[in-house]
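Structure ticket #2291
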Amino acid sequence: MSAREASNIDITSSALLHGQPARAGSVRRVPAAEVEARVACAVREHLGDPSESDDRDLIRNHVVRIELQADQLAIELKPDKARSNARNAVEDERLVLRIPWKKMPMKRRREVIAPVSVSPHGLRPIRAETRATLIASIARGRRWLAELIAGAVTSVEQMAAREECSIRQVNMTISLAFLAPELVKAAVEGRLPRGIGVTRLGDAPAEWSRQYAMLGLSI
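Resolution: structure written out below.
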């Protein structure tokens, strides 16, 4: 993550923290947008409060430190924001949220979901930056939907005004909250074929079977 993103939060590799720099290669450089989206989702779900709409503000206000581990992110929350009925373990008076996470190797060949009319041979996976943007947009769509359901925002028009974007943009982003679980999983794992991103998935039909048909993918 960039210095600007990490300016108020301690983001540490577990291997580096324990004096083992040789083991830090896989987590020394991480996709900032993906980690930010995962952390924001976990903190927002833990707090059960969708009122803070901006991911970076949410992280800045509630998170002390994020530790990158081989198979998870350990998110330490500020004590004054931690709730007494937390479901996560408290370690040494600290409230730590642990969420599964694994950095996708840049060079490893991934099993890409192939469209039914295209040979899987030579099919390229989604670009890393497109994948990070898509994951962040899915998280944003789920958050905006939760705000509308909870009544924190009363209309799409109000949300568009707050976010300084068009009503269509809000609707397209919220539609990402209704993507089929397997498509979301494939996006997170980097198994979507190149060319499928926010633009193609935004405003997709609600029925999961029609989503696959729209993308030319087999269920």
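Closing remark: The mean pLDDT is 76.
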